[in-house]
Amino acid sequence: MDYVPSFDIGRQLPHSNCERYHQDETEMNLERVPNEEKLSLCRKYYLGGFAFLPFLWLVNVVWFFREAFVKPTYNEQLQIKTYVKRSALGLLLWVAVLTTWITIFQHMRAQWGEVSDYLSFTIPLGVE
């Protein structure tokens, strides 16, 4: 006879460090995270943005804006505020550069000929 594991659904598993920071499995609750870990997480997202991942800067600004500018003062808040400001600046720079490139490329694509075809993922029909 094959062994079939049984699971006791009602049994409480011991809490790990990670579980205590979450209200449920899908929502991160920064209220429960110690300030040192908030700073560490904020710093990781800030540095991750330099790996051509500006979405991390957006997440950093959205997640930590309240921690940096609304909450009462605590020791790590000044550093978090710095990372949030720099993340916002980096994100705005990325948006400006990307918007400029997209605008130039859309207007100049037909004039650039073969070069623009090599840069394009799809080539629009009917444009020479």
Question: Can you describe this structure?
Answer:
One of its GO terms (cellular component) is gamma-secretase complex. The protein has a domain at 34-119. It is mostly helical and 128 residues long. The mean pLDDT is 83. 14% of the residues are buried. The chain has helices at residues 35-48, 54-69, 77-112, 114-119. The chain contains four helices and no strands.
Strand content: under 5%
Q: Could you state the order of secondary-structure elements as H and E?
A: HHHH
Form type: elongated
Query: How many alpha or pi helices?
Result: 4
In whole angstroms, the N-to-C terminal distance is: 70 Å
Number of strands: 0
Write down the Rg. 23 Å
The stretches of 5 or more residues where confidence is low (pLDDT under 50) are none
Main sheet specs: none
Helix fraction, binned, reads 55-70%
User: What is the residue-mean pLDDT, rounded to a whole number?
Assistant: 83
Structural class: mainly alpha
How are the SSEs ordered, and which strands pair?
Blueprint (H helix, E strand, L loop, with lengths): L34 H14 L5 H16 L7 H36 L1 H6 L9
Helix pairs in contact: 1-2, 1-3, 2-3
Organism: Alosa alosa (allis shad)
Protein name: Gamma-secretase subunit PEN-2
Subcellular location: Golgi apparatus, Golgi stack membrane
